[in-house]
Amino acid sequence: MLELLEELFSYSFVVRAIAVGISVSLCASLLGLPLVLRRYSMIGDGLAHVGFGTLAVAIPLGLSPLKVSIPLVMLAAFLLLRIRESSKIRGDAAIAIISCSSLAIGVIIMSQTTGINTDICNYLFGSILAIKQEEVYLCIAISAVILALFVFFYNKIFSVVFDENYAKASGTNIEFYNMLLALLTAVIIVIGMRIMGALLISSLIIFPALTSMRVFKTFKSVIVCSSILSAICFFIGIVVSFAYNIPTGASIVATNLGAFLIFCLVSFIKGR
């Protein structure tokens, strides 16, 4: 095992992937609990499809995918909340409309420009080989900002998640905090797509929160557990992927699934 880890850390691209992946996992797990509790967890999947669509704009123009995708996906998150709050379209339907439309437009543009090449597949399914050194610094800096914002607004987010009416009555600007959660989710989705891929990135948001809720019941304990669990599952997933030549994103999701089943078993035993 030690030899495997020593070999693993001897590759610079793996070290870059672990640095980015753990920071993204921590942020995704923090944002995941409020989204799951508000029954809006599939926003991650929808925004990931939007993120893929934005690549159709960035890659043919030779632009940085991150610099193009982040503002466009944040705009999509803003539109999702506006549609949800100001129309008769339900949240899940709004996600379906925007995500499917973005994906379809992206595929059309790619078919007429670059085609479905290796770089596009990296964003669809994830690839630790695709992470560049400058992207590592950018992703870690963005993750640090997201963590700081979540900690700073922790009490307000807690209030909005559990009792929106009370929060509104007490003077809290709930629209601002709903928008903040959506925009932070959009950013973390984009920077995590390199490793997990657009098809699997939402698992980093959903799994840790759902897994921790099997055993822990308070908001703070679930937050702490999901953060630790997310980082551990990511690291184990990377090691398993390297050892058995399994696609990275799929390996990480499978590890999270295993943790979920273990926590379900623990919850069942405790219940008895």
Identify the quaternary structure here: single chain
Q: Mean of residue pLDDT? A: 82
Count the strands?
0
Helical content stands at over 70%
Distance between the termini: 36 Å
Q: Radius of gyration in whole Å, from Cα?
A: 19 Å
Task: Describe what you observe in this structure.
This protein starts with a helix and ends with a helix. The model has no long low-confidence stretch (mean pLDDT 82). The protein has helices at residues 2-8, 12-37, 43-58, 65-86, 91-112, 118-125, 133-152, 154-162, 164-169, 174-196, 203-213, 219-244, 248-271. Helix 4 packs antiparallel against helix 5. It is globular, with a radius of gyration of 19 Å. The protein is mainly alpha-helical.
Question: Topology of this structure?
Answer:
Layout: H1 2-8, H2 12-37, H3 43-58, H4 65-86, H5 91-112, H6 118-125, H7 133-152, H8 154-162, H9 164-169, H10 174-196, H11 203-213, H12 219-244, H13 248-271
Helix pairs in contact: 2-7, 2-10, 2-11, 2-12, 3-4, 3-5, 3-10, 4-5, 4-10, 6-10, 7-10, 11-12, 11-13, 12-13
